[in-house]
Design a protein that fits this description.
CATH architecture: Up-down Bundle
Order of helices and strands: HHHHH
Strand content: under 5%
CATH topology: 3 helical TM bundles of succinate and fumarate reductases
CATH superfamily: Fumarate reductase/succinate dehydrogenase, transmembrane subunit
Largest sheet: none
Radius of gyration: 18 Å
CATH class: Mainly Alpha
């Protein structure tokens, strides 16, 4: 393997993959403990929605969504780069994955930001 140095384009994705992995671990634990309670039945939706009206939880969930999306897509990019040899097919597969990831991120952000105390009073 040829050492291409830090300017080869691989150092930053490698670093951010590790960084998001480290940051995702505690955020995931906090998310599971507060939004799911690690019980057999979890929390009812109204309690989760009520919790998401707090700006602190909104920020935490947005970080969770974006870090998970970056971490997953970066890992998928590495896997696709290792196993798909045709550049056009590699670009197509990764582009479809990015579009799917952005759509899921938008759904997650809309869910997090649409929950307000006023909207909950109207539905509960």
């Amino acid at each position: 393997m040829v050492d291409r140095g830090i300017g080869s384009g691989g150092a930053l994705p490698w670093f951010f993959q590790r960084l998001t992995g480290i940051l995702l671990a505690p955020i995931l634990i906090v998310h599971l403990l507060t939004m799911h309670k690690w019980t057999a039945h979890g929390l009812p939706w109204d309690q989760v929605a009520l919790r998401l009206t707090n700006p602190y939880w909104k920020v935490l969930e947005v970080f969770f969504l974006t870090f998970a999306l970056y971490h997953g897509l970066n890992g998928l990019y590495a896997i696709i780069g290792d196993y798909v040899r045709k550049p056009a097919l590699r670009l197509t597969i990764f582009s479809l994955a990015c579009v799917a990831g952005v759509v899921l991120l938008i759904f997650g952000l809309v869910t997090v930001f649409s929950l307000t105390p006023a909207s909950l009073r109207a539905t509960l």
